[in-house]
Amino acid sequence: MNDYAEEIKIAHAIAFYENDALVGEMTVALVAEGQRILQIFRFSEDDAEHVAALATLARFPNSAHVLDIGCGVGAVAEIMHALRPDLSFTLQNCSAAQLALCQDFPKIHGDMEAIDAPDGAFDGVMANYAMGHADLQPFLREAARVLRPGGVFFAYDLTTLNVRGFAEALGYVPYVPEDVVRAARAAGFAETESVELPQACISSFWRAGCAAMPERAGVALKAMPIAYRFVREGPQMAAGGQQA
Ligand SMILES: C[S@@+](CC[C@H](N)C(=O)[O-])C[C@H]1O[C@@H](n2cnc3c(N)ncnc32)[C@H](O)[C@@H]1O
């Protein structure tokens, strides 16, 4: 397992989430430009097509109550709910300013390493471009804690062949898949899948953001999109993630 302590320290120092007024200001500007999904790689520039691809990878159980960790402005949950009205969502974010921009789903404010929810409260958890803001093992333990046995964890994320240099440029840690899977097993997940996704392309959100900082674009090109799907240890699950 790589030691990410230094990377996480750097990422936290660079990411500006402690200044929520600034996060709010930047997010309002992005939303005004039509950017509601804050992700570097996408399957389609069309929000509904992209989220449909994520929903297919996540395979949340029927009628699942899903916690969206690091939810941004809640666009992924909102669109996934339109595609899968059987799912219900609760949004989690350390940014009160972003939560205020989200639709009317239940909301949990705070750090993803200490989620204000009881054990086993959710049937599904998703973390889209969020896991790299947290310390891997405590984050996965917390995600496992709030999932019921048999519940599904889904992360759409970044990975890279060489983790060094990322935190400085992006304020984000692209964890190595083997480390994520090992940490997931230690956190109490049984079925652990990771899928690399070369068919996803750099988003217009990211291209626009890099216009002023071209070095960021170069760093992102060394990364690739990846999805993880884990099942919380517990009763056997049937295909599609439904309780057997
Ligand atoms: C790159 S954005 C992704 C947003 C959203 N999931 C999406 O796909 O559009 C990362 C999100 O994680 C949130 N975040 C960052 N650090 C966090 C933390 N420690 N606890 C909870 N949320 C955090 C940010 O406020 C932001 O909403």
Please provide a brief summary of the model:
The protein is α/β, with parallel strands linked by helices.
Describe this structure in words.
Helix 4 (75-83) links the parallel strand 2 and strand 3. The radius of gyration is 17 Å and the shape is globular. It has helices at 5-14, 20-32, 47-58, 75-83, 96-100, 136-146, 166-170, 177-187, 204-210, 214-221; strands at 41-42, 65-69, 88-93, 107-109, 122-128, 147-160, 189-196, 201-202, 223-232. Helices cover 37% and strands 23% of the residues. A seven-stranded mixed sheet has the order 4-3-2-5-6-9-7, with helices on both faces. Strands 1-8 form a two-stranded antiparallel sheet. Helix 3 packs across helix 4 and helix 6 (136-146) crosses helix 8. The protein has 244 residues and is an alpha/beta fold. The chain has ten helices and nine strands. The structure holds S-adenosylmethionine. S-adenosylmethionine is lined by residues 17, 37-39, 70-72, 75-76, 93-95, 98, 111-112, 128-130, 133-134.
Shape: globular
- Give the beta-strand count: 9
Question: Which H/E pattern describes the elements?
Answer: HHEHEHEHEEHEHHEEHHE
**What small-molecule ligands were found?**
S-adenosylmethionine
Tell me roughly what share of residues is in helical segments.
Answer: 25-40%
Give the amount of beta strand, in percent. 15-25%
- Summed up, the helix count is 10
Q: End-to-end span in angstroms?
A: 34 Å
Output the strand order for the largest sheet: 4-3-2-5-6-9-7
Radius of gyration: 17 Å
What class, by secondary structure content?
alpha/beta
Segments where pLDDT lies below 50 for 5+ residues? Answer: 237-244
Largest sheet: 7 strands, mixed
The overall pLDDT, averaged over residues, is 91
